[in-house]
Amino acid sequence: MGGPEDSTRQELTTSRSSGEVPRAQVLIIDDEIEHAQVMADALKKPGHVCTVVNSLESAREELRHGSFDVIVTDLVMESPDSGLQVLQLAQKFQADAETIMVTAHGDVPTAKAALQGGAYDFIEKPLDLDVFRNLVNRASETVLLRNANTVLQDQVDAAWGFEGIIGESHAILQVIDTIKQVAASNIPVLVTGESGTGKELVAAAIHRCSPRADRRFVTFNAAGQSESLLEDQLYGHVRGAYTGADKDREGVFEYADGGSLFLDEIGDMPVSMQPKLLRVLETGDVVRLGSNDSRHVDVRFITATNRDLKNLIGSGEFREDLYFRIRGAQIHVPPLRERREDIPLLVNHAVGRYATELGRPIPSVTQPAMMRLIACPWPGNVRELFNVVHRMVVGCRDDQIDIRDIPDEVRAADDDSESASMGSLAGLGLDRIEKEAIRQTLAMTDGNREQAASMLGIGERTLYRKLKEYGLS
Q: For 207-246, what is each residue's pLDDT tens digit?
């Protein structure tokens, strides 16, 4: 449930669509009490909600704990740089807000410097209240449009996937949030998760959201290669380094210079190779096989594994110092069975993709078929799901994908899973079974009633009635 700030932001959006001045939460900071009140009264006329404080310390508390769209601050209060301190605090604690500086004529150069530091605008004393109101109105509209664009982008991400990562579950949204947090830095990232969950998609998303997006994204799998070949692939060689090395060749570190290197299955790297990798990560210097000269590279390093590296450390198969070096940040990609509410999105995305590739009309998926797909255990995760959907689209005989189009082995796995589940329900009354089905489906969808009703094959009004009937919330 939303608080007063949420209500005001909703009104702000509504008033914008009707052509009125958008209401905003405004923080006014001025050590001249009467002047602060005059500004507040001027802004209340068009409907803005104003909070007034008269000291830097009070402003600090409001900025840390409140929620504001526009901040109006006097430039000079207890000290000549009080307003600049407010600006810095606003940028730290109210990143979505705009800050307006109020200044005396002699402080205009400082106010202009504040603009370079991120202030929205400044206005000189004595205030023309009409000009002042218009300035705050423009700032609030700027905030509104920026927030609306953010909401629109979130909706696009939900519908089409964020950088190829599709899902609306809490678990996958956490993955996306972490990607956005770490992308702008150069911190090494370790991506963990079972095979087929989409770890390479996560690594690619980090690269595409980073300042290195226009440079190379290089992927390399460390599994299943001999030590000598692995070393050659990573670091390259010079001519004559070994028999058959008839010319110089750069390794993937050099090839990825300036961009990002994704090293998959790092848990399978031989222990004897790990010290050299650690040195490269610590110094950025690469030495080709057969050479004594080092070459410096600038690479964003992302790794992935489906193994438990802590267990490998305990058994001596992985170096602890390398683990701490690659685990600057960690992103765990959940298995599909832990985010079943994303399966309809994934299925519909894959159906559209494969039907388009085949040049066919996009078939719909019947509710019984979708429920079967949701119930399947999917040990191969998203990779297995997409392979199955591809086969279903290829084999589909009409404009619908039904249960008969699901491969036999998938239906058998689903039947085994369902039998185990139904065994625990034997002997229960139908009302108990129905209540448990609703409860588990709501848990699966994080309380999303629209999704739960769709998965249960009933209308939202029916679901709402049954929630009241069974005392579920």
A: 999 999 999 999 999 888 888 899 999 999 999 999 888 9
Rg (the chain; Cα; Å): 29
Write down the CATH superfamily of domain 4-151: Response regulator (3.40.50.2300)
Helix (H, G, I), strand (E, B) or coil at 264: strand
Taking the model in full, what pTM does it have? Answer: 0.60
d(CA 473, CA 458): 17
Strands annotated E in 336-464:
364-365, 400-401
Q: Partners of 124 in the beta sheet? A: 103
In terms of DSSP bridges, do strands 25-29 and 294-296 run parallel, antiparallel, or are they unpaired?
unpaired
CATH for the stretch 170-334: 3.40.50.300
Pick the CATH number of 338-470 from 3.30.200.20, 1.10.8.60, 3.40.50.720, 1.10.390.10: 1.10.8.60
Q: Rounded distance, CA 286 to CA 294, Å?
A: 5
Distance CA 331, CA 165 (A): 13
Given a contact cutoff of 8 angstroms between Cβ atoms, the answer to whether 82 and 129 are in contact is no
pLDDT in tens, 49-73: 999 999 999 999 999 988 899 999 9
